[in-house]
Amino acid sequence: MVELKNRSLDRGITVLEVLAELGACTLAELHAKSKIPKSTIRRLLGTLIARHIVRRSVSDKKYRINIILPAQKRKYIPENFPIYIDAVMPHAMDLTKEVGWPSDINMLQENHMTVIDSTRPMSPFEIYPGMVNRKINLFGSATGVACFAKMTDDEIADFHERTNGDRIWGLARFDLTLDQYMGRINYHRECGYGIRIKEYGGEYILDDGLAAIAVPLFKDKKPWGGLSLVWTRGHRDHQDFADEFLPLLNRTAKLISAKLG
């Protein structure tokens, strides 16, 4: 029997397998691992991106796979994730072009927020680089606070119960009780945006020195995630920053939520 083989298809599958194995790659890393010529990889990636099978993150310019391969069963990619990326990033990029300051886009998953991308590389300001797919604390982050501000007290209590005593993902990390925390959430319900709680300095070993305001993104009328504007702490206080940029942040979030829906 004659063996039939499509070389382009075979190479495309190889690219996907490399991305599935390594998680995220530059063009050079894909070339080094696959031994496929860079010009060929570029063409393959162009097709894969157009078909929403692969994406290139704005944050670090690396390529990532949007589907699950058999060898990836231990990993999780939300249903319709490519559609979410397409809904969010054009508007987030437009916002950074307009205001200069970068946006982080975080998705609510289980008991944490996950960074799905960031416009930090587009900003003219020097900002501590973000990391795609990094998990961040729901209770401490600006996007987490923004989501909680749109939930009921019982829903927040449920998140607390599931993380009670967890010194990474729960309120125990900040030595706060639920009653203490709810006092802060009530404030953010009134002011209309979330900020990092004062005890939270990001998910790095050292405090990243950043401040942020965030508003929720909605899907099916429920908080899906959060959109933030980030700046260097000490440059301006939260209220001053919100007075100037909150209307634009809200406008962008509304456009994104309409697409998510």
Please mark out the parts with pLDDT under 50 across 5 or more consecutive residues, or reply none. none
- At the third CATH level, what is the topology name of the largest domain? Beta-Lactamase
Distance between the termini: 51 Å
The CATH first-level class of the largest domain comes to Alpha Beta
Structural class: alpha+beta
For the secondary structure, the number of strands is 8
Task: Indicate the proportion of strand residues.
Answer: 15-25%
**Assembly level:** single chain
Mean pLDDT: 90
Strand order of the largest sheet: 5-4-3-8-7-6
Helix content: 40-55%
Order of helices and strands: HHHEEHEEEHHHEEEH
The CATH superfamily of the largest domain is known as GAF domain
Provide the gyration radius in Å: 20 Å
Largest sheet, in brief, is: 6 strands, antiparallel
| Domain count | 2
The rough form would be described as globular
Task: State the CATH architecture of the largest domain.
Answer: 2-Layer Sandwich
Determine the number of helices (DSSP H or I, runs of at least 4 residues).
8
